[in-house]
User: Fold this.
Amino acid sequence: MQLFYTVASAFLISFASLTGAVTLILNQHRLQSILLMLVSLSAGTLMGGAFLHLLPEAIGHLPAQSVFLTTLIAFVGFFFIERVLHWHHCHKERHERKILGAMNLTGDTVHNFLDGLILAAAFSVDVKIGFATAIAIALHEIPQEVSDFGVLLHSGWEKKRALLANYLVSLTIVAGAVIGFLLAEQAEALSFWLMPVAAGGFIYIAAADLMPEIRQEKDLGKSLLHMTIFITGVFLMFLMAQGE
Assistant:
């Protein structure tokens, strides 16, 4: 049953890539305002998922010092991967246009595969933790995929081709989920070690990629709205933690 939940969640999350089609019906100003609200909610759920679900669960099975050290190593590792592969989703526009599309898809492939491993690790430990992790991943995938679709269009891709490529790349989360689940079945302890790895990734994505975008808002009213949405995301994860 855990395998079913893992694979089904991965497939549902992969559909987030199709949200890029939204850019075809919304004007740029409207899209940007919605995107920032999604980014705020995503940042809150990622932080809440890391501190309220993944880390407490890991500490319940592993020494606290090992958990925090692994989280820190994962945080640094995600930074290293981002720098090497140039998969900083919020600032891809800075890359040269001729390599933009290829780098975008390469980075997404790695990112989605890692998300699949994280998802499998969460479900192998506990179904409720798995669903909480799936929600956190899905909410950060939506603004990311909308942004990625826009990057591909900016790189000169035809709309249908960009949408198809984005979806095919998003399916690597399913591959990561299946491989992660099989590895967790062979070595149950691996799933507990993947919890702090996932937490480090969640914290990095929220702190390095998403929150800097929120801080760019100059309007006080919109800033307060984004902060409220961010706190709502954290509170959502808190409520889910209380039900475990």
Remarks:
- Confidence is low (pLDDT under 50) at residues 87-96.
- Residues 59 and 97 are 45 Å apart (CA to CA).
